[in-house]
Amino acid sequence: MKREIITTTDGSTTIHLPDWDECYHSKHGAIQEAYHVFIKNGLSLIEDKSVSILEIGFGTGLNAFITFLEANKNNLNIDYTGVEAYPVEIEEAFAMNYLKALDAIPFETKYRLMHECHWEQKILIDSNFCLTKRKQFFQEISDENQFDLIYFDAFGFRVQPELWSTAIFQKMYNSLKSKGILVTYAARGVVKRSMQEVGFTVKKVAGPPGKREMMIAYKNI
Could you give the number of structural domains in the chain? Predict the structure, then answer.
């Protein structure tokens, strides 16, 4: 499938798939979306200083890198697991302009390590940030009570509805610890109903630039 790097509205880059007319991040602002969805409405809701995170769709590594920066700034301890069935090429990851756009040039070695480190191994990126990258289809996830927070960042329902099914959200529900949270940019009613069917309490909140709403799902038990 053809792939191209494009610049989004906030000046940060992403990967665009012309055949699907789908992007790895919002064309209205990759960095803005990541901060709004996954930090403001995700990580900031977790009260503990030690947080285990599962990312569904590791992609360009933007969400992981921004989480690393937040951990560094706020003295958090993060155990981060990123699942990706089709990893991006290292050259693509390094072509992203995130270091400059995030004013994070001093952390270039950490960003490079995130992409150069081996898959299927827990890697210490920094003293307070561990990363495990798993090359895995989402349907194969079988974790139980492992994570405080899930970043659900799969390609959109329009192009891959099977990734937003009740069966997938059952796996997400099972993967979360008690009182865990799942956050996603999506806001479709069919997705909300699938989440609710497996036991999530779902809340719609204001979305990032270009989207009216997004969803936060809570595991209440």
Answer: 1
